[in-house]
Amino acid sequence: MAETHWNKLGAYLKETQILGSIQNTLYWDQNTGMPKKGASWRAEQLTYIAKVLHKRNSSEEFSNLIQSAKNEILDNAGNPGNQLFIKDKERNISLLLKEFNRERNLDPKLVESLANAKSKGYESWQEAKKKSDFKIFLPFFKELIKLRIEEAKQISNQYSAWETLAQPFEPELNLKWLNKMFQPLKETIPVLIRGINKSKKNHWDLNPESQKYLCSKLLDEFGRDKDLVVVGQSPHPFSITLGPNDYRITSRIVEGEPLSSFLATAHEWGHSIYEQGLPSQSHQWFAWPLGQATSMGIHESQSLFWENRIVKSKSFSKRFFKEFVSAGCCLNNYLELWKSINHLEAGLNRVEADELTYGLHILIRTELEIDLIEGGLPAEDIPTEWNKRYDDLLGIKPSNDSDGCLQDVHWSEGAFGYFPSYLLGHLISAQISNQMERDIGLIDNLIENGEYQKIIFWLKNNIHKYGRSVNSMELVREVTNEELSPNYFINHLRSKLNDFC
């Protein structure tokens, strides 16, 4: 049988994805095990792969393969057969053309400069965070901002500079719509914070080995396949897929915060189980756009679901308390554990923030990004502006840069436009949780009975299976029969506040 244009395109995409997985493997190693002095050579490795990937993704050969496959689909459109499969093929081609045009507009030298700046930015951020000195990171930060603004100029006239940078994370996002989603939160959450009962936090701790034990038991509870998922430690928790049947997640131990690694593990598990449920894992769309996550907002909705709707539930504390006791936990009963997991208090750190205050952390970062990229905010003003906005919205102010503007890894990698996905994820998670309970019963009851596989089955069949066949807002409409609304999340926050005040 003669090789089709579609199959030739698929072979090309597979080679590209292999290169991308090598890039991801180097990133995993950089964050989990690479010696500090290896940073310079790693920067060269990552820069080289970025250059090769850009060349492949913007080449004339790639363009011809896409066009030939597109023509082949059109030629066969009238033939009897699986019209749904043809529709999926057309969607793949549409997404490939969109990404090709984005890549084609980029100067290869800019791609190299960006890859190098990201690697050096990450290295300088680590040092700056360790020494709590933003000035160490500042020159690299300025370079990343400059390069990313230039990237936006080269890519698109359709969107503003910041919107352009946000597209890979949340396709079709625009500032007008984002403000419509976020403004009610900015108006509501500060009012809700004033209703927090200033109860004293129960201070207790677990040694690092006990925390790692609990994280492992948590993943076992959720049904982790140890032949598929490996866990490591990194400065900032993350999840990454290195290839079919190769999923990695990381956590970190925070001194004095016995639940930090536990909640981070639940969060990253949500990312990983989403990746495991994507169409690519059936190999039908391996290496094709349809086998990928539709957006980071959907991705974050999955991680936040497992962190907040599962682990922070009263039923989970009741079910899992015995594991904490066996790990040396000094709390007296599961209600004390539940209250510790859900303690509401405005704090400085985004990753450690409770559900109620978390959104303000994201709003601050999002507004600062937009001001940096589009509003002319000087990079050197970030520590001052960061502290001011924390004081205005949360009523607290960082005493140093590590607890303030250096706490997140994202800007060190030039990931401007990513932060809104976290808050959009909260909105999406709240809305789909409501629908899940309509379909299969109260989440608390499912947890109490240990029916995690029933939950995963619903998520795979209602969220994961779509991949990029639809965009994020189409997916929300498909699942919940309505547009995304901030109201479900606001109602959830009010309910959470009533539980504890």
Strand content: under 5%
Total domains: 2
Rg, rounded, reads 23 Å
* Biggest sheet, spatial arrangement of strands: 1-3-2
Mean pLDDT comes to: 92
Spatial shape? globular
User: Could you give the count of β-strands?
Assistant: 3
Order of helices and strands: HHHHHHHHHEEEHHHHHHHHHHH
Number of helices: 20
State the separation between the terminal residues, measured CA to CA: 70 Å
Low-confidence stretches: none
CATH topology of the largest domain: Neurolysin, domain 3
Q: Just name the CATH architecture of the largest domain.
A: Orthogonal Bundle
CATH class of the largest domain: Mainly Alpha
* Class by SSE composition: mainly alpha
Q: How would you sum up the major sheet?
A: 3 strands, mixed
Bin the helical content: 55-70%
Give an account of the 3D structure:
The chain is mainly alpha-helical and 501 residues long. The protein folds into 2 domains: 5-166, no CATH class; 182-195 and 269-500, Orthogonal Bundle (Neurolysin, domain 3), CATH 1.10.1370.30. 64% of the residues lie in helices and 3% in strands. It contains 20 helices and 3 strands. It has a 3-stranded mixed sheet, sandwiched between helices. A hairpin with a 2-residue loop joins strand 2 and strand 3 (246-251). Helix 14 runs antiparallel to helix 15. The radius of gyration is 23 Å and the shape is globular. The protein starts with a helix and ends with a helix. The model has no long low-confidence stretch (mean pLDDT 92).
